[in-house]
Amino acid sequence: MLPRDHRLRGDQQFKKLARYGRSFFGSAVHLKMVQSGQQQTRFAFVVSTKISKRAVVRNTIRRRMREIIRKELPQLKSGFDVLLIARPKAATLEYWELQGQIVELLNKARLFSS
């Protein structure tokens, strides 16, 4: 589980992301990010029923994405709000394939600290 201060919560924060966020697309994941001015980089994860009608599948994808981010957290820059949205292909990927996609998107967004 992600530490509490790295979780994105609240309607206003999501609206800010939707309105001003920069988008990066992968085949299985869509990343939206905006600079927040906070000390930590905060994350939120969305897996809609379009991905699968079964909650078990959606929760598995969400857990995998959360774990991938938790492992990458020490190498990430601070001060950003990031939204990861699963796309239909995410349901068919293995963990390591999903990890590769997310790391690639984080690289595109230049969220890794040098």
UniProtKB/TrEMBL annotation:
One GO CC annotation: ribonuclease P complex
Pfam families the record matches: Ribonuclease_P (PF00825)
EC number from the UniProt entry: 3.1.26.5
EC supergroup of this enzyme: hydrolase
Annotated GO biological process: tRNA 5'-leader removal
Entry superkingdom: Bacteria
GO molecular function: 3'-tRNA processing endoribonuclease activity; ribonuclease P activity; tRNA binding
Keywords annotated in UniProt: Endonuclease, Hydrolase, Nuclease, RNA-binding, tRNA processing
Reaction(s) catalysed by this chain's protein: Endonucleolytic cleavage of RNA, removing 5'-extranucleotides from tRNA precursor
Matching InterPro entries: Ribosomal_Su5_D2-typ_SF, Ribsml_uS5_D2-typ_fold_subgr, RNase_P, RNase_P_CS
Family assignment from sequence similarity: Belongs to the RnpA family.
Job description of the protein: RNaseP catalyzes the removal of the 5'-leader sequence from pre-tRNA to produce the mature 5'-terminus. It can also cleave other RNA substrates such as 4.5S RNA. The protein component plays an auxiliary but essential role in vivo by binding to the 5'-leader sequence and broadening the substrate specificity of the ribozyme.
Oligomer status and interactors: Consists of a catalytic RNA component (M1 or rnpB) and a protein subunit.
Protein name: Ribonuclease P protein component
Taxonomic path: Bacteria, Candidatus Komeiliibacteriota
Gene for this chain: rnpA
